[in-house]
């Protein structure tokens, strides 16, 4: 049962939100989306439970299955092999994949701020990144983290040589490692950090001075998909945009919908009001970065942000100097992705009754 619920359609059928009727299912185009995490929390509702449960994907003629993927590397392997159609991934990983010859491109800017976080416990007394030199630092899954590498470099630390990286997973294992002092800091993402805060952890977060010049993750697709099936790309992303707008208009409704779709994400027992408050912390940790800050359209990439990230990576030796960041994304679908009535979605969100 647990394994089956990593697939959203199975979870929805279990929760009774969608009746899987062969008559309509056969008429829909089958596609797939992969968040690059197996912890599909309320913060991931915009590209998992909401577009499915609210019927947004179905309105686009799509039957989309959502698979939790264990990390960026696995996600890139799956999409490059054609085993999944879309994944969400940070821009740094995408550009490095392009250098390796993997024909992928961002079709939808999702998180408009970095989703990565570097934190230490307040109890540790650590007041700067420089104090982590020579110490063990945890990560959910060992792998490249250009965001963290650039921050450590700014602090005079070589991330690969001056600290010991430890794979911790998320949730309880990471919590235990932090509480026991097995790791002095944690490199993770926003929703995972918020989840540990709900378990009583108090963190100090370090951010670079250029934090607001960066971005988080994007929805990416293979070049052949962009070329040969543009309406599939538009449908996938338009449903996500509507789901994000719904969630921003009524976070509590979005959380309850997600709990019904993914029952295992709702903590068992306890006061309902407290559970909702904690879920809201995780939800807003990600959804706040989805908001239209400085742009008019969902999914729109800003060239200056891509250039800023690419220049940072070039300086760190992670991209060749002649790499053109404009090849990493496209805004060709933005107008179509935003061709829907925002006021109607807002009214739907405000009027949601739980049925």
Automatic annotation (TrEMBL):
Q: Where is the SsuA/THI5-like domain?
A: 52-254
Q: Which InterPro entries match?
A: NMT1/THI5, SsuA/THI5, TAT_signal
Q: Read off the Pfam families from this record.
A: NMT1
Q: Which sequence ranges form a coiled-coil region, renumbered to this chain?
A: none
UniProt record, GO biological process: thiamine biosynthetic process
The protein here is known as ABC transporter substrate-binding protein
* The species this protein was found in: Roseomonas acroporae
């Amino acid at each position: 049962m647990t394994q089956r619920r990593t697939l959203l359609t199975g979870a929805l059928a279990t929760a009774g939100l969608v009746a899987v009727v062969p008559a309509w299912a056969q008429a829909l185009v089958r596609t797939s989306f992969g968040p690059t995490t197996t912890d599909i929390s309320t913060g991931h509702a915009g590209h998992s439970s909401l577009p499915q449960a609210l019927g947004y994907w179905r309105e686009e003629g799509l039957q989309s299955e959502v698979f939790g993927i264990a990390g960026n590397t696995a996600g890139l392997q799956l999409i490059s092999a054609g085993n999944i159609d879309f994944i969400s991934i940070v821009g740094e990983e995408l550009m490095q994949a392009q250098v390796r010859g993997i024909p992928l491109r961002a079709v939808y800017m999702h998180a408009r701020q970095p989703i990565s976080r570097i934190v230490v416990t307040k109890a540790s007394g650590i007041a700067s990144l420089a104090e982590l030199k020579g110490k063990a630092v945890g990560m959910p899954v060992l792998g490249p983290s250009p965001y963290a590498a650039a921050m450590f470099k700014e602090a005079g630390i070589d991330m690969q040589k001056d600290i010991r990286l430890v794979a911790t997973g998320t949730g309880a294992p990471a919590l235990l490692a932090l509480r026991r002092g097995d790791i002095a800091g944690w490199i993770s993402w926003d929703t995972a950090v918020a989840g540990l805060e709900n378990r009583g952890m108090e963190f100090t977060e370090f951010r670079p001075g250029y934090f607001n010049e960066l971005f988080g993750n994007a929805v990416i697709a293979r070049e052949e998909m962009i070329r040969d099936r543009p309406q599939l790309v538009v449908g996938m992303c338009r449903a996500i945009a509507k789901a994000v707008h719904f969630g921003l208009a009524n976070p509590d409704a979005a959380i309850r919908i997600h709990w019904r779709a993914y029952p295992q994400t709702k903590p068992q027992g306890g006061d309902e009001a407290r559970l909702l408050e904690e879920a809201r912390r995780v939800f807003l940790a990600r959804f706040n970065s989805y908001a239209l800050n400085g742009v008019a359209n969902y999914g729109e990439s800003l060239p200056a942000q891509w250039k800023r990230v690419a220049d940072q990576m070039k300086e760190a030796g992670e991209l060749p100097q002649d790499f053109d960041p404009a090849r990493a994304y496209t805004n060709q679908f933005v107008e179509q992705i935003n061709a829907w009535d925002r006021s109607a979605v807002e009214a739907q969100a405000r009027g949601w009754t739980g049925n």
